Amino acid sequence: KQAEKTVHQKKEQSKTKCRKARRRHINLVAEFNRRQRKNIWLETHIWHAKRFHMVKKWGYCLGESPTEKSYRACYRAMTKHCLLQDLSYYCCLELTGKENVLLKQLARICSIDTGLTFKEACCLSGRFEGSLNLYRADRYPEDMLGPVTFIWKPRDGSENRQLWIWMHPALKQDILRELKAIFQCSEPEELYIPEPVTTSIQEGKQMDVVLSLGKKRKKEDKEGEKAVPVKKIIGDGTRDPFQSYSWISQNTGVVISDRTMEILRYRLIGPLSHSVLTETLKAASLQTV
């Protein structure tokens, strides 16, 4: 009787889908979005998950160290070919405003005694990326915030300039708070409103066609209602999805925008890095209006 009871229980609990159903694109997207609700995945997550030991840090799921089978491949690519690292988990803050206003206030959180600053000629032109250490306003050499890298957008003839500052996710909140204080950016320029979890009109038409053919059925949730595919999660692991991501100053006119996970960042290491870039990226033709 006990054996028969266990057999019946197994039959009742085995409601998992077959592999063909699980591997459908619509089901894969819903499953991937469910698994990254707490820890955001990078664009290259699936590739790394097959070859690296993954860890959960700073709200992301990152590859920490390669497996035994990929150590030699990574070393060979780094010494003889080209090795690509995904640094998209680094946070990016965008500053937009007049050049003299930006330089005047940014000079308060860095010092020329430590090396390059934001007004270095080679970096200010936008040709090179700079790196420096940030401090709290007018507190050098005390109260260090941490190291950052920055790059200016080349001049286009207008008074306003754009500056992108890259930092580690552990430093983002402190640096963002300091930037908002020195530029007096208190009012959010635009509030972030998450998109409702619904399919687009085109996706809905495709589902209707599939249903009419009888080849695929919509998945149902626990309540029996027809569920819809979950959209890709927007945001990053260091920001609340309901928090504003852009602030403006009424006094200086400077706008601070959080561009984390909106701009991807990769690092190429190896002797063939330059040739890989030249073969991958093609220069666009300039079109004058």
From TrEMBL:
Residues 3-97 form the Pop1 N-terminal domain. It comes from the Eukaryota. It holds the Pfam family POP1_N. One of its GO terms (biological process) is tRNA 5'-leader removal. One of its GO terms (cellular component) is nucleolar ribonuclease P complex. This is Ribonucleases P/MRP protein subunit POP1. It comes from Phoenicopterus ruber ruber.
